[in-house]
Fold Endoplasmic reticulum transmembrane protein.
Amino acid sequence: MLLASEMVTFCVLVAPLPHVVRKKLFHFLSESPIIAKLAYGVKIAFIFIAILFVDAVQRMMRVTAEADLAKSNGAGAGDIRTETNVAARKFYAQRNTYLTGFCLFLSLVLTRTFYILLDLVHTQEEYAKLKNENKSSSSEQIEELKTKLAAAEAKNKDFDIVRKQAQQNAKEYDRLATEYNTKTGSVSDKRKD
């Protein structure tokens, strides 16, 4: 039952869930005091399973050695019940070894997968936070740059206006100077066209 529940839990953890559902599930699993007590009880159960695994390995080795000894001695070669009994004991010892071994192995895989996925959820949250901050800071920078651009364009327009006025003033001065020179009869060599 524990092995089956581990397999179901593993399938739920690696199922392709939407980010919001996965986030809520992992926050519940990592922060719930009930789940923490349940995890503590499961850790104790795995200590007992580890003891059962060691016992199953020893029993499998002992039954295998007894079967090999019986084959080498030739005892019970004609007795089908003895051979069946030895084969059944060997099968049960191997089955217990595999079941407890897979249960322990899957517990390690399940624990590591849970923490990897929990890190993934936290990383996705941080990424979303940084993305939002980047959007807000980039929008602020864009607004600041637009303000600076508008100010530069206004200065450029002002400069163009002042330049046009200077050109008009220079033309008017030249016209007035030429008119004055023609009325007074003086010629200036300062300006050459």
